[in-house]
Design goal:
Maltoporin, Chain A; 22-stranded antiparallel beta barrel; 7 helices; globular
């Protein structure tokens, strides 16, 4: 660990020396293009909520944004940390995976299948678990991200399956923001070292692109299980996580080619169930990739055709040791393979200024879906292989009735070969009260079909396949630009959920799934943003959310009722040096093993932009070393979350 900090300090000293030798210059065009993303809610351009680019003020659905400037200043090192900034989202971890709940709904053991995850519009939820990976094994490193958009609520009218509780779209940077060579180094007190090297170019002819290689390694990971036995604790030095990534993007005018891949190895010592005094290594190997091609073509002044083709791969192998009656240690091998291709065709048509039509058809061809469960990769227990085709047709109409009133309607029909037939409507109304105030009201439905794993697990257990989850949501939003540079927003919502798919993890070695009782969720999400002429910014969000089973009003597990988040950034005695404070607070949550108390944690960081080519962040996360637990797994075991950690990161543009 000491060696890693020496490497970082040497890089910092060399960078500072080289930069001090450069004379002060008038900002170039490239530097002007690299200015921070605008954050004014009324004028910033978003694309997630309506599936085409438009100003946030014209969208019937609220879209929250975390910009690249916030990612840098608060040293957000993965998508988990970025998503924790959004109103109504609650994140937790078991040190192997990140788990996400939205508006009080997040099932234990769910790998975020109720949130649709996109990278520049490319669907990256896999075709086995519908999982969205948000930890260090996410495709895109934070320094490559221009912004992250989160559109909460029912999104199936445009996106179909998985857009159940919301849509997250990770927008990568253009070539102008990654111009030249860039080296990113980050380390923390938890023995984690992240190294990224990228090169970007933008040519006057319109060609632009970037390529990035990265490596993230964490050794000696503290065990999350607070009750881990002594033989396991003695092996903490063997608890490690290693990720390698490759990502690249090329653009020319209306064409974009993009690819990304992740290779991960996770090793964790664990107690053996039959004899807790003995331990062995539990291992995960994961390989994911996607390649996408996007093109837009202007047919006329009123019509534009958009084409998006992508191909994806997902490979997962887990090794779980166990003891046989003879006392030997054997291993369960679980091998999962997924291959799929997506095609999206959209026609945007504006016959007159007051009307906008979006016609679309998208399909997913699951050319390979398989998983195999065996002992030592020799004795088969379960083997499943299948294919599937999914097709969705959708239409959205935006009608500007008057200068102050806009009505938006959308419809989508989804069909799959596995007997899924879902119709998802959505309606929205925008009332522009004044130039500074607006009201939005929307109603929509969404669904999540049982994924491949849930279907075939039940077929193995000779049980019926669960029905699709269904949700309908009514919400209203008020936004206003107030005096003294205050922006405020309030959203009230009510959702009804049917057929929530839940796993019975104790009945057999192969999990059994069933449709749980109906759930009712309602809540209030408020945000406030203030900017000062000095450059200081303050962002506040408070969420009250209640998710209950309708028949007995019992609360859902790991579902906080209250969330409060604060981000404050203040220039110090110079404009390029900022003090940044992040606070996250939550109320108590319940788990199958009891109640987990609420907590508040604080992060304080200094960010220093020495010059346009060198940025340094130094700080503490969980400053007061607040001890808190979460229970994201079906077992309900309380898991310790990250303790206090010193953080150091350097971003250096060396060309």
């Amino acid at each position: 660990m000491v060696t890693r900090y020496i490497v970082l300090i040497n890089a910092l000293v060399l960078s500072a020396i080289s930069m001090q030798l450069q004379a002060q210059q008038v900002p170039s065009l490239e530097e002007l293009l690299q200015q921070p993303t605008a954050t004014d809610p009324a004028r910033i351009e978003v694309s997630t909520s309506a599936r085409h680019a438009q100003s946030a003020g014209k969208s019937a659905q609220v879209t929250h944004i975390v910009t690249d400037e916030e990612i840098r200043r608060f040293n957000l090192r993965n998508l988990i940390e970025i998503l924790s900034f959004f109103p109504g989202l609650y994140v937790s971890s078991d040190t192997s995976y990140g788990y996400l709940s939205a508006r009080g709904i997040g099932r234990p053991g769910d790998y975020n299948s109720r949130i649709l995850l996109l990278v520049d519009g490319t669907r990256v939820n896999d075709n086995i678990y519908d999982a969205g990976m948000i930890g260090n094994n996410f495709y895109i490193d934070p320094q490559l991200i221009d912004r992250v958009e989160y559109s909460p609520g029912s999104g199936s009218a445009l996106y179909g399956n998985n857009a159940f509780l919301g849509v997250v779209n990770v927008i990568t940077k253009r070539g102008n923001k990654l111009q030249g060579g860039q080296l990113a180094l980050a380390a923390n007190q938890r023995d984690q070292l992240d190294l990224s090297l990228s090169y970007g170019i933008r040519h006057a002819s319109g060609h632009e692109g970037w390529v990035s290689l990265s490596r993230s390694q964490q050794d000696d990971i503290a065990f999350a299980d607070i009750n881990a036995p002594e033989p396991v604790l003695a092996q903490q030095t063997l608890n490690n996580d290693l990720n390698h990534k490759l990502a690249a993007s090329y653009r020319y005018r209306r064409l974009q080619l993009q690819m990304a891949g992740v290779s991960r190895t996770r090793e964790e010592p664990g107690a053996l169930m039959a004899d807790p005094s003995r331990s062995d290594i539990f291992k995960i190997k994961n390989r994911n990739y996607f390649i996408s091609l996007q093109h837009s073509h202007s047919l006329s002044d009123q019509a534009e055709l958009y084409t998006h083709l992508s191909t994806n791969g997902f490979d997962l192998t887990t090794f779980t040791p166990f003891i046989v009656p003879t006392g030997e240690i054997r291993r369960y091998h679980f091998d999962v393979t997924g291959r799929w291709t997506n095609l999206d065709l959209r026609l945007s048509y504006t016959p007159e200024p007051s009307h906008h039509l979006l016609f679309g058809i998208d399909g997913q061809h699951d050319q390979h879906q398989s998983y195999q469960f065996s002992i030592d990769d020799i004795i088969p227990v379960l083997a499943v292989s299948s294919k599937n085709n999914r097709i969705g047709l959708y239409l959205q109409h935006g009608w500007q009735i008057t200068d102050n009133h806009k009505f938006i309607s959308g419809f989508r029909y989804d069909y799959t070969e596995q007997n899924v037939r879902e119709f998802s409507p959505k309606f929205g109304w925008i009332w522009q009260l004044t130039n500074q105030q607006s009201v939005r009201v929307s109603y929509g439905t969404a669904f999540r079909a049982p994924n491949e794993y849930e279907q075939n697990s039940n077929l193995y257990n000779e049980l019926p396949v669960p029905e699709s989850e269904l949700i309908n949501t009514l919400e209203a939003n008020w936004q206003a630009q107030l005096a003294h540079s205050w922006s405020v927003s309030a959203t009230v919502y009510h959702s009804q959920v049917r057929n929530l798919i839940t796993g019975n993890y104790g009945a057999s070695a192969i999990v059994q799934f069933f449709n749980d009782r109906a759930v009712e969720a309602y809540g209030l999400e408020t945000t406030a943003t203030k900017t000062w002429q000095s450059g200081a910014t303050l962002q506040l969000s408070a969420s009250t959310q209640r998710a209950r089973y309708k028949n007995d009003q019992m609360g859902l597990t790991n579902s906080p009722e209250h969330l409060f988040k604060t981000q404050y950034s203040q220039p110090l005695w110079r404009d390029d040096l900022h003090l940044n404070w992040h606070m996250f607070a939550t109320s108590a949550r319940t788990s199958p093993r009891g109640q987990m108390p609420g907590y508040a944690r604080h992060d304080i960081l200094l960010s220093w932009q020495l010059n346009p080519k060198l940025h340094i962040v130094l700080g503490l996360k969980n400053v007061f070393d607040k001890a808190y637990v979460d229970a994201p797994l079906p077992t309900g075991v309380p898991l310790q979350q990250p303790e206090r950690s010193a953080e150091l990161s350097i971003n250096w543009n060396f060309l």
